[in-house]
Amino acid sequence: IRKIFNMINGRTDVFDMTVGIPDFDTPDHIKEDAKKAIDDGYTKYTHNAGLIEVREAFTRKLKRDNGIDADPETEVMCSAGGMGALVLANLILINPGDEVIYPDPGFVSHYAHIKLAEGVPIPIQLKKENSFGITAEDVEKLITDKTKMIVLNSPNNPSGGIISNTELKRIAEVCIENDIYVISDDAYEKFRYDNEKPLFIGALPGMKERTVSIFSLSKTYAMTGWRIAAVTGSSEILDAMTKLQEHIIAMPTTVSQKAAEAAFEGPQDCVDEMLQTFAKRRDIITKGLNAIDGIELDPPGGAFYAFPDISAYGMKSYDLVLKVLKETNVAAVHGSAFGDFGEGFIRLCYAVSTERIEEAISRLDSFLPKLL
């Protein structure tokens, strides 16, 4: 992804649909509270798990939005973005040689973090025919006596696939039966387009003690640069993660912690506005891409990415995105960047204006059919 990004960095003629950064600004009430925090002296070290008032605000959010009960003293911590929490959780839970099931195509850092912890990454294929959702049946097929953990990411990056409530319950049962831990990467928790009220695996019976649930604020509140997330799990796991964080970054930035408190406790209409906007853009990009000869795309279930099937063009996805960039100035990401099972697809981020989406589709339509 970074290779493509570096190729277009600084170019003003490119329609960039690569990096998943919301085109909204951080909501005003969050910024104002952060400014006030600086004036009020929140510029010093905090507890390694974060300020207690922030953790308390997060526990209220967990109860309200996710159905998870947590003790703010022992079962919650703040981290330096979702990435910070993912690294900590992997390093704490994985021993060398442990097998970890992870989504493919999926967020590239999941694989990297497993390798960093000297685990053995076991990809689970997210299939187009299953709308890129994980099924319990597919999980069971990959379990061995070395399986330690599974990583879930629903809605999924890059496909927008979601795990249905029915399958999530079945996956939880499989994890309990086989004594498997779970990292639930909930970065896109608010960006779902179906009518089913989502369940969260950490809230299911028997799962709290074996699940680390990570809630990044980067996407939900357009706070990618603030580097702040909040995490919940068992007191044993969270205690170990907090101790490890102490020796890596001490704690996330104090001002960002206060901004997170404002996000959790403040009005949520900003999130609703983003969701409604992304839903409209999803419809536009789905209709537009499907009108191009050679492209197939089912409406993404969540997040803000389209992951169309481009196999009809008979080219490797990396070669295709380079050719598209050269001929149309539209920048996309090759599906193989997200794992071997991503080959045959490309990712287009629609966290950009409607006008840019429509122009990008027009440019793609003027070129791609020529490849058939």
Features:
single chain, 372 residues, alpha/beta, Aspartate Aminotransferase, domain 1, Aspartate Aminotransferase, domain 2, 2 domains, 7-stranded mixed β-sheet, 3-stranded antiparallel β-sheet, 12 helices, 40% helix, Aminotransferase class I/classII large domain-containing protein, pyridoxal phosphate binding
Describe this structure in words.
There is one protein chain. By secondary structure, the chain is α/β, with parallel strands linked by helices. α7 links the parallel β5 and β6. α4 runs parallel beside α5. It starts with a helix and ends in a 5-residue tail after the last helix. The mean pLDDT is 97.
SSE inventory with pairings:
Layout: H1 2-8, E1 15-16, H2 28-39, H3 52-66, E2 76-79, H4 81-93, E3 99-104, H5 108-116, E4 120-125, H6 136-142, E5 147-152, H7 165-178, E6 181-185, E7 211-216, E8 229-232, H8 235-246, H9 254-265, H10 269-290, E9 305-306, H11 317-328, E10 330-331, E11 333-334, E12 346-349, H12 354-367
Parallel strand pairs: 1-10, 3-4, 3-5, 5-6, 6-7
Antiparallel strand pairs: 2-8, 7-8, 9-12, 11-12
Helix pairs in contact: 2-9, 3-9, 4-5, 4-8, 6-7, 10-12
Describe the structure concisely.
Helix content is 40%, strand content 13%. It is built from 12 helices and 12 strands. The strands form 3 sheets. A 7-stranded mixed sheet has the order 2-8-7-6-5-3-4, with helices on both faces.
Shape: globular
* Helix content estimate: 40-55%
**CATH superfamily caption of the largest domain:** Type I PLP-dependent aspartate aminotransferase-like (Major domain)
The SS-based structural class is alpha/beta
Strand ordering within the main sheet: 2-8-7-6-5-3-4
The total tally of domains equals 2
- List the secondary-structure elements in sequence, H or E: HEHHEHEHEHEHEEEHHHEHEEEH
CATH architecture of the largest domain: 3-Layer(aba) Sandwich
What is the β-strand count?
Answer: 12
| Strand percentage | 5-15%
Look at the structure and give the mean pLDDT: 97
Q: CATH topology of the largest domain, which one? A: Aspartate Aminotransferase, domain 2
User: What is the CA-CA span between the terminal residues?
Assistant: 26 Å
Biggest sheet architecture: 7 strands, mixed
- As a whole number of angstroms, the C-alpha radius of gyration is 20 Å
Unreliably modeled segments: none
Structure annotation, total helices: 12
- CATH class categorisation of the largest domain: Alpha Beta
